[in-house]
C-alpha cells in the first residue's frame, strides 16, 4: 500500500512537470489520472487583464492566497478563436506553446507552488475588438478548475502614432529618462529602456539634441562614482559603437575598461536627424573593477546622461542631459503587490487585489470601435454611407492622421469585401485620382498605389505600385479588412503632382468584392465622395457630396412608372365605357385623364434621364443592367407621344395597326421600367435596402390582381349586354376620343360602380407605395432606421 501511494505521488508530480501539451489547446482540460473531472465550485483563482499602451498585462493569482502548481492560459475572441502572442517577463515560471499560432498559449515549466503569474499579451497587428483570457489552474494533481475567464477587455488601436521606444514602459521594460516624468510624455532628452531577455538584459538608449554620446550607469547611490556605465558613442564618421566604462572618484570621470566590450554586445544603432539611438545587450552578471553587478538579484540607482563632446578614450561632460533615480530600481517591472504573496515563512497580506465583478452587459449597449476614436479631433475621418462616422458603422472608412509632414491613412471595410481604397481627387467623380488600395492577398493584406483613368474607366496600379507608400500594419478579422498606410507628403503619380501639405482634395472611399490581376474590381461594396475639397490636416467634419440629382432621378422614375403610367394604362384599358357623357376639354373623361397621366409620365422620365447624365457626366460603369434597361425605357417613352400625334385618321385602314403598336410600345415600356426599378435596388450609388424588392413585388401583385378583376368584370359585362363590347377594342377612335363602337351608347356599361371603386382603391395603394419608395430613395441609406430593416 505504501509503495502504491509513493508511486502515485511521483506520477502526480511528473504529470505537472512540463506543462500542458498541445492536445489541450482547444479544451484546456488536463488529462490527469486518465480523466479526473475538473472542479465545479467557484474557483479561488482570478484572471485579471489590463491594457497598457499597445500590450495587455495579464495576471493570474488568488485573492485568498491559495498557491497553484500548474496552469495554461490563452487569449480568445468571443467566438473562441485563439489569438495574440505572449511575452514572458524575466523569472516567469512558464513557457509558450503554439496552438493556433506562434506563442499564443502559456503553460507552466515546473510543479513548484506559485502565488502569482504576470504575463504580457500582444494582440495581432491592427486588431481591434474584444478579448477574453481563458485559463485552467491546477492547485494539485486532482484539483483543478477549467474555463476561468477574465472580464472582457476591449483592445484599442492608438489613434495617434506612438514612439515605439516607449512602448511597454512599466509593463515589459523598465524606463527612465531626463527630465523627470518625460517617459509618460514621451519627450525625453535622454532615456533608457531596459528589458529582461532570458539570461541577459537589453539596454536601449536614446538621446536628442545632436549628442555624440549617451550613457546609462548603475550605481549604489544617486551620485556618480563607483558606477558601471554602458556608453553609446558616435565617432567622426557617424558610426556608433558601445563601450563598458567605470566612473571613478579621483579622477571624477568615466574610464573605459581594459576590455571595453566586457559583458556587452551592440545589437542595433541609428542616427535620425539630431537623435542618437542604440541597443546594447548586457550580461546579467558582470564583474566590473572587482564589483559584482547582478542585474536580476540586486537593485540599482539608474543614472542617464548625454553630452556633445568626447575625450581621449572616453566621453566628455554630460552637458546635454543628466538625471539619477532617487531610489534603487529593479530593472524589470515588478507587479507582485497586485496579489497576496507568500513570504519564506508564511503568507503575508499586502495590497488589496484589483478584483471586481463586471456589470452585466445591457442589451442596448454597442460594441466599442476604437477606429473612430479621435475623429474630428486628432484625425480626419470620412466614411460611407453618409453619417456613419457618428454612428460608427461605416461600410468603408478612412482616417488620416497628420504629424508634421507624415501622413498616415487608416482604411477599414466590412462586409466580406476583397479590397478597400481611398482616392484623392480634384472633383467628386472618379477619374485622374491618386488611390491607395488595401487588398486581401495570400495570408494578409497588401497595399498598392494606383491611378484612376477615364479611358478605360478603372483604377490602374502604377509601374511601381509601392511608390510613396509603406504598409505599417494590417489585419483581417472576421469580415473586416483593415490597414494602416504611410504616404509621402509629395508624390508624382502618373505625371500629376500630389502635394498633401499645400493642396486640398476631395476624398473618395470605396470597397469591392472582386480583384483582377493588377487592379481592383468595381466598387460593389460601397462608394462615397466628399462634398468639398479639404486639407488632410483639417480634422473638421467631412460632408459627403450632394446626391440631390440622384435622389431626384429615382423619385421621378418611381412617380412616372409606378404612379402615373400605371393609372394611365388602366384608364385606357378598362374605362372607355365609364363616365359616358362626361367630357373634359371636349374629350371623354377617360381619354382626358389618360392623356394627362401619360404626359406626366413622359415629362418625369425625360427629366430623370437628363438629371442622371448631368450627375454622372458619363455612361454608368456598373455591370448592373439598370442603365441599359433605363435607356430602352426612355427611348420607348420618348417616341410614344410622337407616334400618338401622327396617328392615322379614324376609319383609315392603318388605324388598327397604330392602335396595336401604341398598345405594344406603351406596355413594353411599362414592363421594362418595372424590371429596371428592381435592378436599381442593387446599384451602389442608390444605397437602397434589399427590402425595397418586397415593396416592388407588392406593387406588381396589386397591379396584376387589379388587371384580373377588371378583366373579369368586362367579360361579365360583355355576356350580359345586348351587344358585345370588346374589352380592348382596336377600332377607330373618334375625334372626341370615343371608340366608334360605343357612339350609340348613352350610358355606362354594367359594373361601372365596381370599376370606379377598384380604381379608387388602386390609386390609394399606388400613391402610398410611391410615397414610401420616394422617401426611402431620398433619405437613403436608411436601412438602420426604417422598421423593416434586418440587422447584420
Automatic annotation (TrEMBL):
It is a multi-pass membrane protein. It is found in: Membrane. The keyword Chloroplast does not apply. One of its GO terms (molecular function) is transmembrane ascorbate ferrireductase activity. One of its GO terms (cellular component) is membrane. Residues 1-15 form the signal peptide. Its cofactor is heme b. Keywords: Electron transport, Glycoprotein, Iron, Membrane, Signal, Transmembrane, Transmembrane helix, Transport. Pfam families: DOMON, Reeler. The chain crosses the membrane at residues 555-575, 596-614, 626-646, 658-682, 694-716, 757-782. Its main location: membrane. Residues 213-307, 419-512 form the DOMON domain. Residues 552-681 form the Cytochrome b561 domain. Belongs to the FRRS1 family. This is Ferric-chelate reductase 1 homolog. It comes from Psylliodes chrysocephalus.
Amino acid at each position: 500500500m505504501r509503495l502504491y501511494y509513493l508511486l502515485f505521488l511521483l506520477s502526480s508530480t511528473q504529470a505537472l512537470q512540463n506543462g500542458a501539451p498541445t492536445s489541450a489547446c482547444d479544451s484546456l482540460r488536463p488529462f490527469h489520472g486518465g480523466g479526473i473531472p475538473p472542479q465545479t465550485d467557484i474557483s479561488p483563482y482570478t484572471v485579471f487583464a489590463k491594457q497598457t499602451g499597445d500590450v495587455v498585462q495579464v495576471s493570474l493569482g488568488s485573492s485568498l492566497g491559495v498557491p497553484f502548481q500548474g496552469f495554461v492560459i490563452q487569449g480568445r475572441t468571443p467566438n473562441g478563436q485563439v489569438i495574440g502572442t505572449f511575452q514572458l517577463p524575466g523569472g516567469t515560471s512558464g513557457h509558450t506553446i503554439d496552438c493556433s499560432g506562434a506563442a499564443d498559449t502559456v503553460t507552466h515549466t515546473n510543479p513548484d507552488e506559485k502565488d502569482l503569474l504576470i504575463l504580457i499579451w500582444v494582440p495581432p497587428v491592427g486588431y481591434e475588438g474584444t478579448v477574453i483570457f481563458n485559463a485552467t489552474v491546477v492547485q494539485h494533481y486532482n484539483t483543478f478548475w477549467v474555463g476561468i475567464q477574465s472580464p472582457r477587455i476591449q483592445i484599442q488601436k492608438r489613434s495617434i502614432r506612438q514612439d515605439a521606444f516607449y512602448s511597454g514602459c512599466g509593463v515589459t521594460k523598465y524606463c527612465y529618462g531626463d527630465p523627470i516624468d518625460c517617459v509618460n510624455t514621451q519627450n525625453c532628452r535622454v532615456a533608457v529602456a531596459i528589458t529582461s531577455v532570458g539570461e541577459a538584459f537589453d539596454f536601449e538608449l536614446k538621446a536628442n539634441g545632436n549628442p555624440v554620446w549617451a550613457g546609462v550607469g548603475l550605481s549604489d547611490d544617486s551620485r556618480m562614482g563607483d558606477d558601471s556605465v554602458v556608453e553609446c558613442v558616435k565617432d567622426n564618421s557617424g558610426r556608433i559603437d558601445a563601450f563598458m566604462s567605470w566612473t571613478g572618484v579621483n579622477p571624477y570621470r568615466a574610464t573605459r575598461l581594459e576590455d571595453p566590450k566586457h559583458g556587452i554586445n551592440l545589437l542595433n544603432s541609428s542616427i535620425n536627424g539630431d537623435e542618437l539611438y542604440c541597443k546594447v545587450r548586457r550580461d546579467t552578471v558582470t564583474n566590473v573593477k572587482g564589483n559584482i553587478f547582478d542585474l536580476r538579484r540586486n537593485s540599482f540607482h539608474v543614472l542617464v546622461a548625454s553630452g556633445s563632446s568626447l575625450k581621449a578614450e572616453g566621453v566628455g561632460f554630460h552637458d546635454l542631459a543628466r538625471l539619477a533615480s532617487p531610489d534603487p530600481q529593479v530593472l524589470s517591472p515588478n507587479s507582485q503587490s497586485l496579489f497576496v504573496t507568500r513570504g519564506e515563512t508564511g503568507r503575508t497580506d499586502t495590497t488589496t487585489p484589483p478584483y471586481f465583478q463586471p456589470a452585466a452587459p445591457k442589451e442596448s449597449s454597442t460594441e466599442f470601435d476604437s477606429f473612430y476614436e479621435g475623429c474630428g479631433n486628432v484625425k480626419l475621418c470620412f466614411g460611407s454611407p453618409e453619417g456613419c462616422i457618428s454612428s460608427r458603422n461605416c461600410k468603408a472608412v478612412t482616417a488620416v492622421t497628420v504629424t508634421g509632414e507624415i501622413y498616415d491613412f487608416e482604411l477599414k471595410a466590412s462586409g466580406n469585401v476583397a479590397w478597400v481604397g481611398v482616392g484623392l481627387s480634384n472633383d467628386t467623380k472618379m477619374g485622374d485620382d491618386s488611390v491607395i488600395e488595401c487588398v486581401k492577398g495570400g495570408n494578409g493584406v497588401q497595399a498598392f498605389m494606383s491611378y484612376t483613368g477615364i479611358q478605360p474607366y478603372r483604377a490602374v496600379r502604377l509601374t511601381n505600385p509601392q511608390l510613396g507608400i509603406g504598409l505599417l500594419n494590417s489585419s483581417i478579422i472576421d469580415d473586416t479588412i483593415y490597414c494602416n498606410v504611410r504616404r509621402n507628403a509629395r508624390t508624382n503619380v502618373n505625371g500629376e503632382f500630389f502635394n498633401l501639405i499645400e493642396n486640398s482634395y476631395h476624398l473618395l472611399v470605396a470597397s469591392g468584392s472582386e480583384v483582377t490581376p493588377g487592379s481592383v474590381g468595381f466598387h460593389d461594396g460601397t462608394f462615397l465622395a466628399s462634398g468639398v475639397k479639404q486639407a488632410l490636416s483639417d480634422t473638421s467634419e467631412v460632408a459627403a457630396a450632394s446626391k440631390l440629382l440622384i435622389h431626384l432621378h429615382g423619385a421621378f422614375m418611381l412617380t412616372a412608372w409606378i404612379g402615373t403610367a400605371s393609372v394611365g394604362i388602366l384608364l385606357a384599358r378598362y374605362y372607355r365605357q365609364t363616365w359616358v357623357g362626361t367630357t373634359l376639354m371636349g374629350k371623354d373623361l377617360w381619354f382626358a385623364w389618360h392623356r394627362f397621366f401619360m404626359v406626366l409620365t413622359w415629362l418625369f422620365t425625360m427629366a430623370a434621364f437628363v438629371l442622371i447624365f448631368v450627375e454622372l457626366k458619363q455612361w454608368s460603369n456598373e455591370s448592373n443592367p439598370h442603365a441599359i434597361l433605363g435607356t430602352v425605357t426612355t427611348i420607348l417613352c420618348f417616341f410614344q407621344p410622337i407616334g400618338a400625334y401622327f396617328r392615322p385618321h379614324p376609319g383609315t385602314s392603318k388605324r388598327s395597326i397604330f392602335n396595336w403598336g401604341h398598345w405594344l410600345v406603351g406596355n413594353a415600356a411599362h414592363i421594362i421600367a418595372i424590371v429596371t426599378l428592381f435592378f436599381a435596388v442593387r446599384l451602389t450609388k442608390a444605397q437602397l435596402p434589399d427590402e425595397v424588392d418586397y415593396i416592388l413585388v407588392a406593387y406588381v401583385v396589386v397591379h396584376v390582381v387589379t388587371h384580373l378583376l377588371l378583366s373579369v368584370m368586362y367579360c361579365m359585362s360583355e355576356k350580359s349586354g345586348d351587344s358585345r363590347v370588346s374589352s380592348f377594342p382596336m377600332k377607330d377612335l373618334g375625334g372626341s376620343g370615343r371608340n366608334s363602337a360605343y357612339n350609340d351608347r348613352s350610358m355606362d356599361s354594367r359594373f361601372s360602380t365596381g370599376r370606379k371603386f377598384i380604381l379608387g382603391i388602386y390609386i390609394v395603394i399606388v400613391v402610398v407605395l410611391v410615397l414610401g419608395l420616394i422617401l426611402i430613395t431620398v433619405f437613403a441609406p436608411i436601412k438602420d432606421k426604417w422598421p423593416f430593416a434586418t440587422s447584420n
